[in-house]
Known about the structure:
Elements: H1 14-24, E1 36-37, E2 40-41, H2 42-85, H3 90-108, H4 117-120, H5 123-127, H6 134-141, H7 144-147, H8 155-165, H9 173-180, E3 181-182, E4 185-186, H10 189-192, H11 210-236, H12 240-249, H13 262-267, H14 279-288, H15 293-309, H16 333-349, H17 364-371, H18 373-391, H19 397-400, H20 404-429
Antiparallel strand pairs: 1-2, 3-4
Helix pairs in contact: 2-3, 2-11, 2-14, 3-16, 8-11, 9-11, 11-12, 14-20, 15-16, 15-20, 16-18, 17-18, 18-20
Amino acid sequence: xxxxxxxxxxxxxxxxxxxxxxxxxxxxxxxxxxxxxxxxxxxxxxxxxxxxxxxxxxxxxxxxxxxxxxxxxxxxxxxxxxxxxxxxxxxxxxxxxxxxxxxxxxxxxxxxxxxxxxxxxxxxxxxxxxxxxxxxxxxxxxxxxxxxxxxxxxxxxxxxxxxxxxxxxxxxxxxxxxxxxxxxxxxxxxxxxxxxxxxxxxxxxxxxxxxxxxxxxxxxxxxxxxxxxxxxxxxxxxxxxxxxxxxxxxxxxxxxxxxxxxxxxxxxxxxxxxxxxxxxxxxxxxxxxxxxxxxxxxxxxxxxxxxxxxxxxxxxxxxxxxxxxxxxxxxxxxxxxxxxxxxxxxxxxxxxxxxxxxxxxxxxxxxxxxxxxxxxxxxxxxxxxxxxxxxxxxxxxxxxxxxxxxxxxxxxxxxxxxxxxxxxxxxxxxxx
Length: 432
């Protein structure tokens, strides 16, 4: 995820305030002015919602991501070894690409909650910075002495070395994406079996040996796996073998200078020991914070699509930049954007599942269904519309970033951002 965000700062309309206050009164009895959601006070309900977001959305997302990242790392090692032994197959390449896409989908569906380890420990820029610096990567792959640090017989040492040696423009999803994908398809196994690479588009790699690319990519994939373990364990504290792996590598397993997890921190919002001084401050961070739903919504529209398009709404997207396209080698860009909006939907409904159908008992959806169904329906319609408009963009995005449908999708993201702000403003306006 790009590190530049546009904060959403909008005023709530007076009509929405009036409607909201009227609707919330329907759950209150005549002798109690406390805002109620069913039988619970509003704060109790929102606290339970935060608990379910952690248990039903955040933790399952990171757990599946860790599984997929492990599969990808193992398949990359299998492919590397097979190329070395001269028995690599196209199926091996295809399997690695499938696992990359699976891990990628989970990561993009986590970008509505980058407000924990991903931002505190700079994991997000470490594994998801683009554009990939192809010129620097080419130079790096020619440095035989340094490359040797990532190709020892000790796989764990290779990961630690590359983790500490290289900057974020050479690591993460997009570095390994370049190695295993070409022009939107899994790279041909014949290319890996050749003496030199045949890539000569944005940079000339025809003097680079594919086995060196694979040796490098395996270490990067291991670093990606470990970084995702950090996200998983720092939030949940679970998956004992992943926690042991992190401890052995001396990587993070909890919040900074603390033994508690980010999940515990959010669940205890408003209580002693949490960085959130109130339940509603945690809600606001989730819904409209720069590392929450509002942040990723703005980034999808204003930056991920807006910068290649040349939206000209800020200094970052003032001119069209065709090099600033996420996941260009796999042609996964539009899927990334759709999954980013799905991460907002998962937070809103309090669930997570591969088929995107699971919802929570306590959720922002159910909160608004009881207190302000009109506003809740507007948010959900905006979520669905943003995903539909993104899906309607012609693929691949790397060849169609100036298409008129892209501007339509950008506008839908702006509408969603505005609706999220209204929803948060409504929540913050409710008092005892």
